[in-house]
Design goal:
Number of helices: 13
Order of helices and strands: HHHHHHHHHHEEHHH
Strand content: under 5%
Number of strands: 2
Largest sheet: 2 strands, antiparallel
Radius of gyration: 20 Å
């Protein structure tokens, strides 16, 4: 997927350089998705307008390429063909990762603010199926962006918005809770519990994902983070004890799934799942 992001950004940059110098817990979606994506243009416009205001006007070339990458990523992230299946949001994920890789922490916070507020928007009267689906797609995009943002960038977002009392402090807290659930349910558990073959490579990837979850669980304010999703489910970060148990179960899974010599040679990696 990281290779996809690099190719996506490279292709958009090449196209734009030529153009500018010479003259880019969720239910399965229904067929109504195609209609709701048209209506989601308002959400997309709000996100992009907010981002556009942050661009450096003195560097129009860089700003234009940057905004076009974000625009194309956002459009594809919510396109009908990429939102038909949202549990998990597999087809949405490459474009969400491209958006997260290109956006600044401030831009991610602004985009997430719009997506979450769209997802939690109260119905005016009787909610139509199309309105409900728009909220679900917005919510899927919100949790996917939170889950696929690189850890250093996400850490910076939390520092700016929560530690320093930024404008989007509440959204950042919701992002942290959503990120934890995405890491656990979409990226970690399927890798460990449903892989047909466990390898040293899958062990290393599982360690990275476990470390990202551990970083959230050990936040001093982790227990205070959480919100109710548009699907009426509680989204929160697990306790340290629950993650400790998951770590122990993970060691057992790799002990059973790895060849004996591979298991013996990788004790240092396996110890990463131990929480004192």
């Amino acid at each position: 997927m990281k290779r996809f992001v690099k190719l996506f950004v490279l292709s958009v940059t090449c196209v734009l350089t030529t153009t500018l110098v010479g003259g880019c817990g969720i239910q399965t979606a229904t067929e109504d998705t195609r209609d709701l994506v048209r209506n989601s243009n308002v959400t997309q416009t709000a996100i992009l307008d907010g981002i556009n205001k942050t661009l450096d006007a003195t560097n129009q070339m860089r700003g234009s390429v940057h905004l076009q990458i974000l625009t194309l990523a956002l459009q594809n992230m919510t396109a009908a063909e990429n939102t038909v299946f949202l549990n998990p949001p597999t087809l949405m994920m490459p474009y969400a990762e491209a958006f997260a890789a290109e956006a600044t922490p401030d831009e991610l916070a602004k985009a997430s603010y719009v997506l979450l507020n769209t997802a939690l928007l109260p119905a005016q009267g009787e909610e139509t199926a199309q309105q409900k689906q728009t909220r679900i797609v917005s919510y899927a995009a919100f949790i996917t962006l939170a889950g696929l943002t690189a850890k250093p960038k996400f850490d910076e977002l939390l520092s700016t918005q929560i530690d320093k009392g930024g404008r989007y402090i509440d959204v950042a807290g919701a992002m942290a809770a959503a990120r934890y659930g995405f890491l656990r349910d979409v990226l970690f558990n399927p890798l460990v519990q449903r892989s047909q073959t466990l390898t040293k490579g899958s062990l290393a990837e599982a360690v990275d994902r476990f470390d990202a979850m551990k970083a959230l669980v050990t936040l001093p304010y982790a227990a205070k983070l959480g919100f109710t999703s548009p699907l009426k489910t509680k989204v929160s970060i697990d306790s340290i004890d629950k993650l400790r148990n998951l770590g122990a179960d993970t060691i057992d899974a790799f002990k059973a799934g790895l060849p004996a010599d591979t298991y013996a040679q990788n004790q240092a990696l396996l110890n990463q799942f131990v929480i004192p």
